[in-house]
Amino acid sequence: MQELRQFQLSAQSYRYGKDVSLDPTCLFCKIIEGHIPADIVFRNENVVAFNDIAPQAPTHILIIPTLHVSNGADLAKASPTITAELFKVAEQLSNERGLGGYRTVFNTGAEAGQSVFHAHMHLLGGRALAWPPG
Ligand code: AMP
Questions:
Q1: Residue 65 counted as domain residue
Q2: Considering its fold, how many domains does the chain have in total?
Q3: Helix %, strand %, coil % for the chain, to 5?
């Protein structure tokens, strides 16, 4: 829990202008801070989840850390604990919605379709999902 405490403290410091754990130019940091509206479906101190603005399935939720890192791999390096928490939140949201199954996706890099460079897990479900994806 020491690792978690450090991130909580650094996120707190940012709000007082002493740190850069959030990036004031980042769209998802602005959503975390409430500067841009979003349809938020879950929030705790480490994780925020909100409906995707352009849903690709009946359930399409973005689950993000409240810590600014560029992608899922960087999040795993910075905090395995929070990375695992994203998966726990995905399971919880899926259960709440009674999904029969779901897909979690991290797009990493522009070539893979990443357009927002704040780590985010896509949670997709509510319809049959084809494989392989496009
Ligand atoms: P990716 O392409 O993996 O980086 O995913 C970024 C996702 O963010 C896309 O699915 C977008 O539809 C979604 N998105 C962009 N802006 C917003 C916003 N303001 N609120 C909710 N979702 C957004």
A1: yes
A2: 1
A3: 35, 20, 45
Q: Tell me the whole-structure pTM to 2 decimals.
A: 0.89
Indicate if ligand 1 lies below 6 Å from the C-beta of 55. no
Mutate to test the pocket of ligand 1, among 52, 70, 86, 104 (most ligand atoms within 8 A of CB): 52
Please indicate whether residue 114, judged by its CB atom, sits closer than 6 Å to ligand 1: yes
Structure tokens at 11: 């996120």
CATH number where 90 lies: 3.30.428.10
> Mind listing the pLDDT tens digit for each residue in 42-79?
999 999 999 999 999 999 999 999 999 999 999 999 99
